[in-house]
Amino acid sequence: MAESSYATMANYPISVIGSHYCTPNQVDVVISRKVKTLRYGEFVVSDMNGNFVFKVKGTSFGWHDKRVILDAADNPLITLKQKMLTEHSRWNAFKGESTDNKDFLFTIKRTSIFQLKTELAVFLANNNSKEKNCDYLIKGNWSDRSCVIYAGDSSAIVAQMHKKITAKSLLIGKDNFMVTMYPNIDQAFIVSLIVILDAINAVNDAAVIGAAAGAGVASGACF
């Protein structure tokens, strides 16, 4: 039902990063991260044959967190930058390695401050609704590492993510995500949304782990 809903509205490429990242057929990719990497936020994106499609580099500078998405030849495509001191965990995206307003592509933020399940709204640079009407909506359950990306506030699905667990991934210690992207959607754009989704929820994961560790220390101190 979701696929037919999407097919009726997306008979032309939806390009955000580049039209050459839009294909007329459905595409599946695997986003892989080394769980224990020293450089958090780094991924590789591969097709189902194991060929690199995109790479993601994560950096921290000052109070800011940043990700850069590169193509398979290491050319920078998108810079994702966390906006500090915001209540809705906002990230902004820019062309190439730029962070200038003239190269602004889109912004993404939580739809509410407190959420039991993840819900993020995406507003493209040409959106003039003053963030009243989103261009894309991401809904999911991060504990299950799954999400669905919708076109606007509709039931039309443009991409889906779920956790991919294999015997190989368990042995080499990687966290893998399978992403299905429907026809005519910008694949580089979808990857950037997944990377931001991971970054936003990583803060919550760290907070939960920290709280649990603190509770353990406090509990131990009572004995």
TrEMBL record:
Gene3D superfamilies assigned: LURP1-related
InterPro entries reported for this sequence: LOR, LOR_sf, Tubby-like_C
Classification via PANTHER family: PROTEIN LURP-ONE-RELATED 1-RELATED, PTHR31087
Family: Belongs to the LOR family.
Protein name: Protein LURP-one-related 15
Lineage, broadest ranks: Eukaryota, Viridiplantae, Streptophyta, Embryophyta, Tracheophyta
